[in-house]
Specification:
A hairpin with a 3-residue loop joins β21 and β22. The chain is about 10% helix and about 35% strand. The chain contains four helices and 29 strands. The chain is mainly β.
């Protein structure tokens, strides 16, 4: 366990009525401090790791809102500030570092004395396009180190789940940001990416360890519990919304649709084949199974040292004890401390296999392979909807679609943005009719021969197909 502050510091913070809590904003570029003794009025720090219905794989950007009395003495726009707060312990002031934040230029043209300035931590540095510059295959921790070097961040630790997983190639070929790359790494590690003390960490939920803090009825104003989440007994990695053949599952013996509590990792850029998923799914399942906690929202005072992902114990006013994890945390200073801790239920699937059908799809057995590293999508379909009666294989890359057809094919589908259509081995399939409909409508009767292109003499207005 990392000791962040002394026990005396904690006891002083928990006092609802106590001596003044200290705070300092340090402007790095100007080497200047603003404290509670002069112009610092208040600040608020928000950290949310549970967004868009997910926790695992999130990349947390903490937000600070600062209010100072500014009569033109300070220039915080486009600068970096560090924030800390402290209490008297004996004869000294012990401080807790609350990280550094970049304050961009505000939207308003004029900055008044009452303007609240907003900044974001160093996760902002990852909002740039990713540049592939490594040699493959490469370990995931080496890959993450290069990503940090690229955005001028310090990697706090190379020790995280699956740090030795070998990445085979670059799947980020569509201008993805460095933050998206980081999110996919955090997914493989079953954790969240956070900035702490100006360093980047992949942080995991501690399932077997002891909670680092206990919050009881003496230190919260509101306690709103939900139903217990867990224990996790099933884990799934899926691609392409769970198309048959594109998911890997591990679960405890005896799990049924009734008691299944499943964590799902979806559409990870690195895990786009069955072989890649099978390499690490056992390790991931063993790391997450048994996870149990209380989804809860607590309004408290006195805990500036708590951070996202921390495991804590909560005791209600009936002395019932619960384990939970900090997924969202809002901390406020205005001469005293207050805050809100929130733990939400992770997305889980109680029914792993669902049979769905609609008017367009009657029966389908499909293997869909998405190779982002080589930029290719291959579909092998035995039976499909009324669009295709029988279709053996489709390969699509960035520029075109190549379609290999066997026997008779009734292919009717509306497609946009396709510049080329290749039909191979047609001389053995006796292709007699090709219709292309769009802005123009073509109806070409083709006769099997060595050259299947229509004659320009017969069709003078035809574009060559």
């Amino acid at each position: 366990m990392i000791i962040r502050v002394s026990d005396e510091f904690k006891q002083e913070c928990k006092k609802n009525v106590s001596s003044l809590k200290y705070a300092t904003l340090h402007i790095k570029e100007d080497n200047e401090d603003i404290t509670e003794n002069d112009d610092l009025q208040e600040f608020n720090i928000e950290a949310q790791s549970y967004t868009s219905d997910k926790f695992i794989g999130s990349t947390v950007s903490k937000k600070v809102t600062v209010k100072i009395i500014d009569d033109g003495n300070y220039q915080l726009e486009n600068k970096t500030i560090s924030v800390k707060t402290g209490v008297e312990v004996g004869e000294i002031i012990e401080y807790q570092n609350l990280d550094s934040y970049i304050i961009p230029k505000p939207d308003v043209e004029e900055i008044s004395a009452d303007t609240a300035l907003i900044g974001y931590d160093y996760m902002m540095k990852l909002e740039t396009p990713y540049v592939d510059r490594v040699k493959y295959p490469i370990r995931t921790d080496d890959y993450l180190q290069d990503l940090c070097n690229q955005v001028r961040l310090t990697l706090g630790s190379r020790d995280f789940l699956n740090n030795d997983y070998m990445i085979q190639g670059n799947p980020f070929t569509n201008g993805e940001s460095c933050r998206i790359v980081l999110s996919n790494i955090a997914q493989i590690a079953l954790g969240i990416a956070v900035i702490d003390e100006e360093k980047l960490y992949i942080k995991n939920l501690d399932i077997v360890g002891e909670p680092i803090e206990t919050i009881d009825g003496n230190n919260y104003m509101e306690f709103n519990p939900n139903n217990i989440f867990g224990p996790v007994n099933s884990f799934k990695i899926q691609m392409n919304n769970g198309v048959d053949g594109e998911e890997s599952v591990r679960e405890d013996v005896g799990v049924t649709d009734t008691n299944r509590c499943q964590i799902t990792i979806s559409d990870n850029y690195f895990l786009n084949s069955q072989e890649q998923r099978e390499l690490i799914i056992d390790k991931m399942f063993n790391a997450i199974k048994g996870l149990t906690y209380l989804p809860v929202k607590i309004q408290y005072y006195g805990y500036p040292w708590l951070k996202l992902g921390d495991k804590i114990k909560v005791i209600d006013k009936n002395n019932n004890e619960y384990i939970t994890y900090i997924m969202n945390h809002e901390f406020s200073y205005n001469g005293a401390y207050s805050g809100v801790i929130e733990s939400k239920a992770l997305s889980k699937t109680q029914s792993m296999y669902k049979n769905t059908s609609d008017i367009k799809t009657w029966k389908r057995k499909t293997e869909l392979q998405v190779d982002k590293i080589n930029g290719k999508i291959t579909s092998i379909i035995d039976e499909q909807s009324q669009y295709e009666e029988k279709l053996t294989q489709i390969e699509q890359d960035v520029d075109s679609i190549s379609q290999k057809v066997e026997n008779t094919v009734d292919f009717k589908r509306e497609s946009e943005g396709i510049t080329e259509l290749h039909i191979t081995e047609a001389e053995q399939a006796d292709v007699l009719l090709l219709e292309i409909k769009g802005g123009k409508e073509y109806n070409n009767y083709l006769y099997p021969s060595a050259d299947l292109y229509p004659s320009e003499d017969l069709y003078p207005n035809m574009e060559v197909i």
